[in-house]
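[Discussion] Sanity-checking designs against the backbone

I'm trying to build intuition for which residues belong where. Below is a C-alpha cell string of 367 positions. I'd appreciate it if someone posts a full sequence so I can compare it with mine line by line.
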C-alpha cells in the first residue's frame, strides 16, 4: 500500500474553478473520506487521484512517485464506482477477473484469483451468473472484488453504498471497515453521508465549494468543528446553532439571543479577550447536551414551543421552535415517553457549548 499526497491541486472546467487549491496528505493504510454536499468537488478530487481527470494546477503523488501526468492504468489504484460499472454480458467471474485479463494473465490462474476474492466477499456461489441475475448488494460486492483482485497501492471509492437500501448499507459499511482495517489498505472514499464518514474514516476531509474546510479524525470533527458549516453538516441530528450577542459582566462574558440565555463564562477566561460587548456569535449545542429544563426560569436555557416529540425506542428527539425563530433538537436517552407540551425549555451546561465568531469560525476554548 502507499501514501497519497495532493499539493496545491486546482481544477477548472472552462472559466469555473471547481477545486480552488487543496492540499491533502493521506498516510499509508489510512481510510480518508471526502465528505461534503452535492457539487462541492468530491468526485472531481477522487477522479484526479485516479487519473480520470487532469488537474489544472498542482501535483499528485502516490507512494512518493509523481503521477500527476500518469495514465490511470499506470497509477496502480483500484476504483469502485457508485453504479458498480459491471459488464452486463460477462459472468460475475469474468467481471471480477477482468483487471487481470487486461494485464495479460492466462484464463485459469485469473479465474482462480477471482474465486479466491469472491469467497472472501461471500459471493463465491454466484460466479457463473450475469450481473442482472444478482442483487444490488451482491453487485456491489462484485465491483469491490474486481477492485481488490489485483494488488493495488490504494483503493478509491465513489459513493459505493449509495444504491443499497438502508439495512444493507449499514451491513456493507461494517464489512468495508473490517476489510480495510484487516488488510491495511490505503482508501479514499467519497460520500455525502456523514454517518458513513464517521463510521469508516481514520480522517475526514470536509469539503465545501471546492475547498477542504477541515481535515481531522472523525471525533475531532464532531467535538471541535472548525466552522458553522462543519458543525451543521456532521452529526444526526446536527449541532444546534443559535445566534446570540455578547454582553459584559465585569471580567466575564454572557450571551443573549432570542430564546437563549447563557450565563457569564467564569470557566472560559480567554473569552473576555476574544469578545467585546455587542459582538455577534453563534452558539453551537449538540442535541445530546440538551435536557428538559425543570424548575424556575434561569440562565443556560433555550425557550420555545414544542414542534415535534419523536420516540425512537432507546431515545427521543424533541424539537422546539425558539422564540427567536431558530429550531433546536434535543436527544434524550431512555425509552420512557417524554412528557412535554406547548411552551417548554431546554437546559444545558455552558461548558459543553461551542462558540463561533461572526464569520462562522470556531472560537478556541482551553482544553
Ligand atoms: P455529488 O455528491 O453530487 O456527486 P461532488 O461533490 O462529487 O457532487 P463533483 O461531481 O466533483 O461534485 O462536481 C463539482 C462541480 O464541478 C459541480 O458543479 C459539477 O457540475 C462540476 N463538474 C464536474 N465535472 C464537470 C465537467 N466534466 N464539466 C463541467 N463541470 C463539471
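Best answer:
Here's mine. Compare freely.
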Amino acid at each position: 500500500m502507499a501514501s497519497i499526497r495532493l499539493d496545491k491541486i486546482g481544477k477548472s472546467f472552462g472559466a469555473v474553478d471547481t477545486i480552488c487549491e487543496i492540499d491533502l496528505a493521506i498516510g499509508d493504510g489510512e481510510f480518508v473520506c471526502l465528505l461534503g454536499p452535492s457539487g462541492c468537488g468530491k468526485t472531481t478530487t477522487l477522479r484526479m487521484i485516479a487519473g480520470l481527470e487532469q488537474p489544472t494546477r498542482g501535483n499528485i503523488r502516490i507512494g512518493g512517485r509523481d503521477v500527476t501526468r500518469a495514465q490511470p492504468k499506470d497509477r496502480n489504484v483500484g476504483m469502485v464506482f457508485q453504479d458498480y460499472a459491471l459488464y452486463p454480458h460477462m459472468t460475475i467471474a469474468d467481471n471480477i477477473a477482468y483487471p487481470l485479463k487486461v494485464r495479460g494473465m492466462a484464463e485459469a490462474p485469473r479465474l482462480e484469483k477471482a474465486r479466491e476474492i469472491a469467497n472472501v466477499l461471500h459471493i463465491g456461489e454466484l460466479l457463473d451468473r450475469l450481473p442482472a441475475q444478482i442483487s444490488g448488494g451482491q453487485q456491489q460486492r462484485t465491483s469491490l472484488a474486481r477492485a481488490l483482485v489485483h494488488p493495488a497501492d490504494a483503493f478509491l471509492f465513489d459513493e459505493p453504498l449509495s444504491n443499497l437500501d438502508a439495512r444493507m448499507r449499514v451491513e456493507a459499511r461494517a464489512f468495508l471497515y473490517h476489510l480495510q482495517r484487516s488488510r491495511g489498505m490505503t482508501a479514499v472514499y467519497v460520500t455525502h453521508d456523514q454517518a458513513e464518514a464517521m463510521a469508516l474514516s481514520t480522517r475526514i476531509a470536509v469539503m465545501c465549494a471546492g475547498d477542504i474546510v477541515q481535515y481531522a479524525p472523525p471525533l475531532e470533527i464532531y467535538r471541535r468543528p472548525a466552522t458553522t458549516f462543519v458543525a451543521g453538516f456532521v452529526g444526526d441530528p446536527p449541532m444546534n446553532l443559535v445566534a446570540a450577542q455578547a454582553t459584559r459582566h465585569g471580567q466575564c462574558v454572557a450571551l443573549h439571543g432570542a430564546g437563549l440565555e447563557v450565563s457569564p463564562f467564569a470557566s472560559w477566561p480567554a473569552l473576555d479577550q476574544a469578545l467585546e460587548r455587542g459582538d455577534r456569535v453563534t452558539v453551537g449545542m449538540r442535541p445530546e447536551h440538551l435536557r428538559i429544563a425543570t424548575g424556575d426560569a434561569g440562565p443556560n436555557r433555550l425557550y420555545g414551543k414544542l414542534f415535534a416529540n419523536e420516540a425512537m425506542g432507546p431515545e427521543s428527539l424533541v424539537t422546539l421552535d425558539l422564540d427567536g425563530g431558530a429550531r433546536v433538537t434535543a436527544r434524550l436517552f431512555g425509552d420512557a415517553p417524554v412528557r412535554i407540551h406547548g411552551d417548554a425549555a431546554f437546559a444545558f451546561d455552558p461548558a459543553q457549548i461551542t462558540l463561533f465568531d461572526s464569520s462562522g469560525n470556531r472560537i478556541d476554548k482551553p482544553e
